[in-house]
Amino acid sequence: MNRAKLFIDNFFSYGLISILSRVIPFVFLPIITRLLPDTSDFGVFDIFQVAILLGTSFAFLGIYNPFFREYFEKDEIKYKNDVATTSFWLIFTNTCIISFLLICFHVFFANHFFNDEYHFILLISFALFISVNHDIFVLPFRIQNNRKAFLTSGLINALSQKIVAIILIFLGFSFFSLIYAMVIANIITIAYSLVKNRDFYFKGSFDKSIAKGLLKFGLPLLPITVIMWGSQSIDRMFIIKYLDLSELGVYAIGARVAQVSHLVYMAFSVGWGYFAYSTMKDKDYPILLGKIFSLSVAFITSFYFIFYLFKDIIFNILFTGDYISGVIVFPYLLIGPLMMILISILDIQTIVTKKTLFSLLINGLVFVVVIIANMILIPRFGILGAGIANVLRYFFSMLLFMIIVVKVKKLVILSHHVYWVLGIFILLFIYINIVGITLISTLSIIGYLTMVFVMYYKQMMMYFKKWKN
Known about the structure:
Elements: H1 3-35, H2 39-59, H3 64-71, H4 77-104, H5 106-113, H6 118-143, H7 147-170, H8 176-196, H9 208-218, H10 222-242, H11 245-257, H12 260-278, H13 285-309, H14 311-318, H15 330-352, H16 356-381, H17 383-408, H18 416-435, H19 439-468
Helix pairs in contact: 1-7, 1-12, 1-19, 2-4, 2-6, 2-10, 2-11, 4-6, 4-9, 5-6, 6-8, 7-8, 10-16, 10-17, 12-15, 13-15, 13-18, 13-19, 15-17, 16-17, 18-19
């Protein structure tokens, strides 16, 4: 197996897929913000998405990654089919239970969390059921490395969601247009996925021993997933507590534009699962991960600085009114998905080696730091404080993973120059976000980009030649 070719093919193929499927929301975002000038509308939609993500975390029972890993554990077709069928029924059954409980206790949840908006909980229950099934039925495209089908499903979902949203806004549904459009788009994508993979989950049998193994491996990961959800969402909760929905709407717009870096993360993560688990038995796996980590540092830091230079231009072109204020949090939210690439490379070894306790401890500590940071920074700096807390979360998480996975357990082997590049990046990151875009900061960024190019040019050309051959 040409591992360089496999990794680069997956990265660029899924990168193109992610860009094509995500460019549609970017194109439509300025249109929708002009149709919904009240920033609080996006604040409400953001809260709805946060609730769906929490429900999804519980619905998957922590077996999303174990399912992926177990699928590649053996080459026997029957075993793979049984893993797929068993995983599907575990997730589907649990999703039904959670949705049913939300319906049964919708009054309780509405009274305690949603200001007596009973219909909102019922809508969350239905949207959660659809959202989880969407994720389930799209997953086979990733497992089978079917890039064309994955691209098509992404385009169908993105395009239908925005078109339906605009139609519903004109019909007077306000922020509910965004919610209804998301649900309808997921249903359409599920239909497409069933046509393409109608028997993927139904060729095998439900195997109790496989189910036991998946749950034994997955349930300890569930707290990690929930903690990660908390780390990602706690800023929204504190913004509502200390500020208001309008400020949350501005923050949400900044986050949506910052999702340009999420395109890179999606390109990586969607192809990463197949690559990481299909090569996990290679003897030089820790060295391989180290090389990927090193190249990723060069790429993502360069990507960040390039987009940082154009942040003001981007927001002034795309938005009007209060939405332009989202630029103040953009640099802090842009870095998050990029750092997640580095964290994922290190974290994969805790799953491969089944030492998930490390991941749980790290994410637990990070969650505590995020809560404290948001409590201190948001009252003082507003949504900018939430952005700074977001940066602290990722940097602290990566630091802990590097200490445990690299230094203590030596599950990933890194070259010394990686630490120098990361150190220079962090110092320059702090500097430019304090002084802003000036002549000196711009020249500093150009100098950094030149340094990275010189350091990694030969290595990149070597892998490029391997990819061509």
